[in-house]
Design goal:
Strand content: under 5%
Mean pLDDT: 87
Number of strands: 0
Structural class: mainly alpha
Low-confidence stretches: none
Order of helices and strands: HHHHHHHHHHH
Shape: globular
Number of helices: 11
Distance between the termini: 38 Å
Helix content: over 70%
Length: 234
């Protein structure tokens, strides 16, 4: 079952969120300090990913053009609207902002190489080990995020399952059409570009900035275009 890894990932996020809500009744000062700690850890993770680039100019161009496209399309506003819609339907009940939890968790769980590599392994080889590993990491991350950001974190499971599931579904076609060297190059530069986005998420969590990270997401597509052009001209 090629969708098993994606399904397990979604289930772990849901379980982690519910467990995190069990610890939501902690003092406000402790919540603030925990949020800073999460933000710092996310920043370090993003920095590690960002340094993996083999051609940082690709990362710069990808993020710049991606930001222009994202701002034009208003992706951050669209995600927030979806989160606010969920908030109105369900109600916060003192459980934190559903919109903030949904958007922040979605960006953290979707951006990164593990989702792509894991989806490809699931679809091509039926090997779910990468997504199983990601599931454990995401489950603990969801637990921590839910203690401060609230129940909205649970809804991030939906885009995660869809994203990884679609990659697994089209994996065989991707593997047959795209040369391995090109795919590896894309994953490397995508990881670096995604790492910068994750670093920005960490800055937002600490309250230092208000970067509209979702508007940087088209940078992933721009990365694929640039890498492809360089590969064909190389």
């Amino acid at each position: 079952m090629f969708l098993l890894g994606a399904a397990v990932n979604g289930i772990c996020i849901i379980i982690g969120t519910f467990l995190g809500r069990l610890f939501h009744r902690i003092p406000e000062n402790m919540k603030t300090t925990v949020m800073y700690a999460i933000g710092l850890c996310v920043m370090v993770l993003g920095l590690q990913m960002g340094l993996k680039s083999e051609n940082f100019l690709i990362v710069i161009l990808s993020l710049v053009f991606g930001a222009v496209i994202g701002e034009f399309l208003g992706l951050e506003d669209q995600l927030n609207k979806l989160g606010n819609w969920l908030e109105k339907k369900i109600g916060t009940s003192g459980q934190g902002s559903i919109s903030q939890g949904f958007v922040t968790a979605t960006l953290i769980f979707v951006i990164g190489a593990m989702a792509i590599i894991g989806g490809l392994d699931s679809g091509i080889r039926g090997d779910h080990s990468v997504l199983y590993t990601k599931s454990i990491i995401d489950g603990f991350t969801a637990l921590i995020l839910a203690t401060t950001l609230g129940i909205g974190v649970i809804f991030s499971a939906i885009p995660v399952v869809l994203y990884e599931g679609l990659i697994a579904l089209f994996a065989k076609g991707i593997n047959n059409v795209i040369p391995e060297a090109l795919l590896n190059s894309f994953i490397t530069e995508m990881t670096a570009a995604g790492g910068i986005m994750i670093f920005a998420i960490g800055l937002n969590l600490t309250g230092l900035t208000k970067v509209r990270v979702a508007n940087l997401l088209p940078g992933i597509i721009v990365t694929a275009i640039i890498v492809t052009i360089l590969y064909m001209w190389g």
